[in-house]
Amino acid sequence: MSAADAVPATGTTLVIGATGTTGSRICAQLTAAGHAVRAAGRRATPVPGAEAVAFDWYDPATHAAALAGTDRVYVVPPVGDPDPAAAVLPFLRRARAAGVRRAVLLSASSVPEGGPAVGRVHAALPGIFEEWAVLRPSWFMQNFTGGHLHALSIRAEGVIRTAAGTGRVGFVDAEDIAAVAVRALTGVRAPNTDLVLTGPETLGYDDVAAIIAQATGTAVTHVSLSHAELRDLLAGLMPAEFATLLADMDRAVAAGAEDRVTDSVPRLTGRPATGFRAVVEREFARGAGAAAQ
């Protein structure tokens, strides 16, 4: 699938997690292009240009109304659930039976098909839908400007703590993820594959700290921790199992697992992927770094 295949589609798109990092941007891009959108979330929060609907992964009674009249769905699995397949797969089968013909799933570059957590959903998706895509973005650039732990520690202390060492990551802009999702949802042909999404370059966390400091005029440094130090730090903020998972992901970064750049964003959107400095300047100009100033 290329940018040329992205012919505007008719029908209604259900966007799960419509107020989240990717979902909010997908809603905005779809509605701006004139597509009908049903914005799903637990509180049915109003979203400009979309029809808000209540949706809870763990309350099947909310699913029928969310699905009614939709023919495509953007799927963000329940956050923090170690086994999202238990909730997501029954919903996807119900969606297909209700007439949804295309599904786009948000996964992660670090999770392969058939791997843990959402990897199980990835593996099952082609057996449920003939039209599908799995988005596997690298680490979000917005981790440093939004509500992520990195952004919070930058604002409070001017530090970024990782166990990634000098490992490099192809950080990706959430706006670019949304643009690819819109193409995958509305294109005349579905990708029918998984797409690893990165920015235009790889960066180490020392690079990230330096760019943020230069762009914002604030002192930011990268503090390198051991795997055990990061795990124990995170365990004070979240369940131990999830803390270990995050520390393991940093260890994989240190070993080079995310040191790659793909062409998925330019190939599907028809434009270059956005660079990290441009995203930092854009997000901080919008007020993301106000507390740090």
Class per helix and strand makeup:
alpha/beta
Which word captures the global form? globular
Low-confidence stretches: 289-293
Distance between the termini: 43 Å
Strand content: 15-25%
Please state how the strands of the largest beta sheet are arranged side by side. 3-2-1-4-5-6-9
Secondary-structure element pattern, one letter each: EHEEHEHEHEHEEHEEHEHHHH
The Cα radius of gyration reads: 19 Å
* Count of helical regions: 11
Helix content: 25-40%
Biggest sheet record: 7 strands, parallel
Q: What's the pLDDT, averaged over the residues? A: 93
* Strands, total number: 11
Protein architecture, described:
- 39% of the residues lie in helices and 16% in strands.
- With 293 residues, it is of the alpha/beta class.
- It starts with 11 loop residues before the first strand and ends in an 8-residue tail after the last helix.
- Residues 289-293 have low confidence and may be disordered.
Secondary structure layout:
Layout: E1 12-16, H1 23-32, E2 36-41, E3 51-54, H2 63-67, E4 72-75, H3 85-97, E5 102-106, H4 118-128, E6 131-137, H5 149-157, E7 159-162, E8 168-169, H6 174-186, E9 194-197, E10 203-204, H7 205-216, E11 221-224, H8 227-235, H9 240-254, H10 264-269, H11 276-285
Parallel strand pairs: 1-2, 1-4, 2-3, 4-5, 5-6, 6-9, 7-11
Antiparallel strand pairs: 8-10
Jot down its keywords.
39% helix, disordered C terminus, globular, 7-stranded parallel beta sheet, 16% strand, 11 helices, alpha/beta
